[in-house]
Amino acid sequence: MKVSIITLFLLIVGVQLASAQTPNTSPTPTKAEQEIINLSKTK
After folding, report:
1. How far apart are the C-alpha atoms of 41 and 33, rounded to whole Å?
2. Phi, psi at 17, each rounded to 5°
3. What distances in angstroms separate CA 16 from CA 11, 19, 25, 28, 43, one per listed residue?
4. How crowded is residue 5: how many other Cβ atoms within 10 Å of its Cβ?
5. Mean of the pLDDT values across residues 30-43?
6. Under DSSP, is residue 39 helix (H, G, I), strand (E, B) or coil?
7. What is the mean pLDDT of the chain?
8. Contact assessment for residue 15 and residue 23, using Cβ atoms and an 8 Å cutoff
9. What does the alpha-carbon distance between residue 21 and residue 19 come to, in Å, rounded to a whole number?
10. Could you tell me if 24 and 32 are in contact, meaning their C-beta atoms sit under 8 angstroms apart?
11. Which residues contact 29 (CB under 8 A, 6 or more apart)?
12. What is the radius of gyration, based on Cα positions, of the chain?
């Protein structure tokens, strides 16, 4: 039982570290969002 709890804890910590390493830059807009941005720039 202790081993499974420790394994679960390490798994959660590993996932947290892996997700923290991915750079959270601004996401690229979708096609529809890009069209709205272009329309608002032309006005």
Report:
1. 12
2. -65, -40
3. 9, 5, 18, 24, 43
4. 9
5. 85
6. helix
7. 80
8. no
9. 5
10. no
11. 37
12. 21
The full DSSP string for 8-35 is: HHHHHHHHHHHHHHS--PPPPP-HHHHH
- Helix (H) or strand (E) run with residue 26 in it: none
| pLDDT on residue 27 | 67
Q: Which two tokens stand for residue 31?
A: 């096609």
- The three-state secondary structure class of 21 is helix
- In the chain, domain spans: 2-42
Token digits of residue 41: 């720039």
Q: How many residues does the chain have?
A: 43
Please check the confidence at residue 3 and state whether its pLDDT lies above 80: yes
